[in-house]
Amino acid sequence: MALTESEAVGLIYALPEECIAGVLSFTSPPDACRSSSVSTNFRSAAESDAVWESFLPPQYKSIISRSADSSSSLCFSSKKELYLHLCDHPLLIDEGKKSFWLEKRTGKICYMLSPKDLLIVWMENPYYWRWTSLPDARFPEVAELIDVWWLEIRGKINTCMLSPATLYKAYLVFNLSGSHNGFVNLPIEAEVGGHSRTVFLDAKQGGVRVYNPRAEMGYCQALRWREEDGGRPKKRGDGWLEVELGEFFNGGDDDEVEISVLEVKAGVCKSGLIVHGIEIRPN
């Protein structure tokens, strides 16, 4: 004999909390939160450590252990509190060279590589770059460009550090000082995982020419590009700018993804770039 709708609903309400928690662990954090309004049993299951432990990445304890704050400020009464904290408060790890957090909707791993975790050509020369501390920066120090012709920034990340079966995008997070020079409509070559694209570090739209005053034969070499070939930076909620460098899919293999930002062709003197880091987060 078939059950009526009300009888079926009654059976769901009568399910043991452990069964409900087992089902919710296969959903998502938003789904678990919404299910809290179904019944008291569902609310209790949706708040349980068993459910929120399943939303945390398998290696979260190992990642947290790499932070100086792992023993003191990360003690919470529930796994849900820990999850939400890791979503809203990026954690400095690896001696402050990386920042780790979770995407709130999915629980997938995100990182930002600090300038000290990147290869910045000429960084060791105080005539070209300098370390500076800013109150709105995530890291103790960020890199400020004083004056270079050759701009080259490189980073890398192992895919085993990231969430599997996930499409990731890489972003340069930066600002331009009030006295910046050389970046207006200057095409920058960005590369992620062997795939390159042109980006710009200024928000001004419209293609123009960039001249090379050091070109041979005493004349200026004009570099042209189509505006649609390049990405423009966007303002973030934290006040910094970001520009998308490219994307890659993490299929779960143990691979190393290389990321680069390069401008060495235009012969333009550049200054005033403040590099916060390279951010890697799910698409």
Report on this model:
This protein is α+β, with helices and mostly antiparallel strands. It is built from 7 helices and 17 strands. It has helices spanning 5-13, 17-24, 29-35, 40-46, 49-55, 60-64, 79-88; strands at residues 91-93, 98-102, 109-113, 119-120, 129-132, 142-145, 151-158, 166-181, 188-192, 195-199, 210-212, 221-223, 230-231, 234-235, 241-250, 256-263, 271-282. The longest helix has 10 residues, at 79-88.
Task: Give the overall pLDDT as a whole number.
Answer: 87
- DSSP helix fraction: 10-25%
Structural class: alpha+beta
DSSP helical segment count: 7
Unreliable stretches covering 5 or more consecutive residues: 207-229
Q: Gyration radius, to the nearest Å? A: 24 Å
Largest sheet data? 9 strands, antiparallel
CATH-assigned homologous superfamily of the largest domain: Galactose-binding domain-like
CATH domain class of the largest domain: Mainly Beta
Topology pattern, helix = H, strand = E: HHHHHHHEEEEEEEEEEEEEEEEE
**What form results from the Cα inertia axes?**
elongated
